[in-house]
Predict the structure.
Amino acid sequence: MAAFDPWDPDFLADPYPSYADLRAKGRVHYYEPTDQWLVPHHADVSALLRERRLGRTYQHRFSHEDFHRTPPPAEHEPFHTLNDHGMLDLEPPDHTRIRRLVSKAFTPRTVERLKPYVDQLAGELVEQLVEKGGGDLLSDVAEPLPVAVIAEMLGIPEADRAPLRPWSADICGMYELNPPEDVARKAVQASVEFSDYLRELIAERRTRPGDDLISGLIAAHDEGDRLTEQEMISTCVLLLNAGHEATVNATVNGWYALFRNPGELERLRADHSLVPTAVEELMRYDTPLQLFERWVLDDIEIDGTTIPRGAEIAMLFGSANHDPAVFPHPERLDLTRADNPHISFSAGIHYCIGAPLARIELAASMTALLRKAPTLTLATEPGRKPNFVIRGLEGLRVELG
């Protein structure tokens, strides 16, 4: 178990050999530093994502005391109010109700209608990168594209968009393992500021609705049931955070992987029709969300080990996506990999509602870079962010060769 250390820079640089070691040693492992049970195999992770004896929360059935858990500090309340009213951290019946209402506004047709805007914006961002002769792929393309798209979708005015990415980054810091108090303070502050902003915007849309997602969420109802104001705020924040964090990191992780696999990059440059399978393979190869947690609501057994009610399970998405039982030669980047049941977008009732939009964005930026910057090369080796759960780079400096 010494090999698994989510705070070790060497592990963060390349966790996949440690995952192979975990898979070889068994199907479930207790990890004392985080008081979690690690699950590394694809079949188990896939099954547990659909297991109703597990939950993203336990508070619909149990108190903190029932689970022998200490309630979060009172000063963290703004973060938990925001987080605990979003779909991602709710279980049925609340999850079912909110997802059904959000789905009425966040439809496949709504997403598909955004495609021309996404393609145009991706093209403009890449053209600006080319005009400069290169730059930071993270800040010049990967970040501004999904942030602008989800902001456009929500109806957030362009002049108000600058704080969105910093707010999101600060809030997402709380999803790391054992976050320190300074990270919690930033998350609380961002939660307050983001919530206050959205509360004002929702009030404005109530009086002057537009053709945007916030107006759609206000209008969405089902047999007289509507989203509360807090549920709308939490939904908007979730859509923004989840709607771009994975896309940003998948973009830079993916291009870094391509630069380290020049044969596959040349293959892609020679045949742009590989973009759809390339997007799926890059999401698998270096997974942007490495771990997803669930609470054990009723005792379960994995390979003869009983995991009791009140325990927490950490499903290792990065390991599952490299399981040789499912992916032949998992350490090999293969942009033509057709059978690719990766779980980067989760599964079950918490399957990512924004997955179709993420795929459109990833394909748009990749296609624009292939067409407009065919000689793109890595300028300097990037630094890895000191995060485990949300895996990304500090930046990705590129130049035109």
About this structure: The radius of gyration is 21 Å. The chain has 17 helices and twelve strands. Residues 233 and 257 are 36 Å apart (CA to CA).
